[in-house]
Amino acid sequence: MPVTDEQTAALRAFLSFDPSSERLTRDLADAGRLDGFGALAHAAFVIAVRRRFAPTWTSAQIVGFTARLRNALRPQGIDLDPKATEILIRKALGDPVTSDGDDKTQARAMTLVLVDLMADEHLSDDSLDAFMAEARALADDRLAARHDGGLGRPK
Amino acid sequence: MPVSDQQAATLRALLEGHIDEHKRLLASLDRKADALGYSALVTAAFQNAIDLRFSRDSTLDEVTEFVAQVRSHSEELRDEVDPRTAERVIIAAVGGGDVPELSSEESNKFALILLAELVIDSHYDEAGMDEFMVKARALADKILLA
User: What value of ipTM does the predicted structure carry?
Assistant: First the structure.
C-alpha cells in the first residue's frame, strides 16, 4: 500500500516542528497505519543524508558530524549511539555495511539525525513540499518493491 | 626490573611514526621478559599524555571530539575504536583509573591508539619528546616497583 496523505502530513508537520505532528502521528498509530509512515520517514532520512553528504563523502565527515550531533544532544540528556548513527548514514549513502544496534536504537538515531539535517536546511514551505514529494515517491517505490518480493534497494 | 632502553626505544619509534623501526624493535623484544616493562611504559606514557591534554575540568564534549579526531584518520581506526569505549578509557584515565570490563589486551590497544594521537597532537620537537619519554619511563619504573 502506498504512502497516504495522512502519513505525509504527519511527517511534514514533524519535520517543520509543527505542534500538530504529535496528534497526527497518534492518529496514525491509533488507526494502525504507522507502517507506511516508517517507510516515509526512512526515505526522508535517506534523501536528507544524500543532500548533505553525497556525492563525495568521507568517513571522517560522518564521524565528525556524528560527534558534533552527540555533543549538541547531550545537554538535553540524549545519548546518541555513535556507531549505529554512523552506520545508518553510511547505509543511506549506499555503503554496504552491516547494521549496528537494535531496531529501537536505529529508529531513534534516524529520527535525531533527520531532525538535525532538516533544521540545518531551513526549507521554505515550497521546498519542504518538494522534499516531501521526493520522499513519498522513494517510499512508494520501496514499499512496492517489498510488496513484489524485491529487495527494496535504494534507487 | 626497570624499563629497559630497548623497551623505551620501541615505544618512542611508534610515537614518532617510525612504524617499520617500531615493528623491528617490537619483534626483538622478548614476549615474556619484556611484556611487563613495555606494558608499564605504555600505561605510564598514556597516563602522562592524558594528564597533559585533559583535566577534571575537561568536558565530555572535548573527549567526544578528540575520539572523533582519532577515528577520522582511517577507516581501520574508525572500525577498530569503539567511540563510547574510547571515551570511557579517557574519562577513567583522567581520574587515574581504568575501565574494569576491558581486558588488559583491549586496554593496551586503546591506550596505544589514543597515546599516539595525543603525542602527534602535541607536536613535540626532539627535546620535548626526550622529556616526555623520560617522564613516562620514570612513572613506569614507579609502577613496576609497586
Answer: 0.84
CA geometry: angle A82, A88, A93, nearest 5 deg: 125
Which residue in the set B68, B73, B75 is minimally distant from A67, CB to CB? B68
Compute the CA torsion angle B20, B25, B27, B29 (nearest 10 deg). Answer: -170
**Contact yes or no for A63 and B78 at CB 8 A:** yes
Q: For chain B, what are the domain ranges? A: 5-145
**pLDDT surpassing 80 at residue B29:** yes
Interchain CB contacts (distance < 8 Å): A and B: 31
Closest CA relative to residue A21, chosen from A37, A3, A35, A1? A37
Q: How many angstroms separate the CA atoms of A70 and B101, rounded? A: 24
Domain ranges of chain A: 5-147
Smallest Cα distance from B59 to chain A, Å:
10
3-state secondary structure of B4: coil
Given A64, A71, A74, which is nearest B72 (Cβ)?
Answer: A64
A137's CB contacts (< 8 A; 6+ apart) are none
**Per-residue model confidence as pLDDT tens digits over A115-153:** 999 999 999 999 999 999 999 999 999 998 877 665 444
In chain B, what residues touch A83 (CB-CB under 8 Å)?
A: 82-84
Predicted structure pTM score: 0.87
- For the segment A82-105, what is each residue's pLDDT rounded down to a tens digit? 999 999 999 999 998 887 778 899
- Test B72 with A59 for CB contact under 8 angstroms: yes
CA gap B74, A58 in Å, rounded: 10
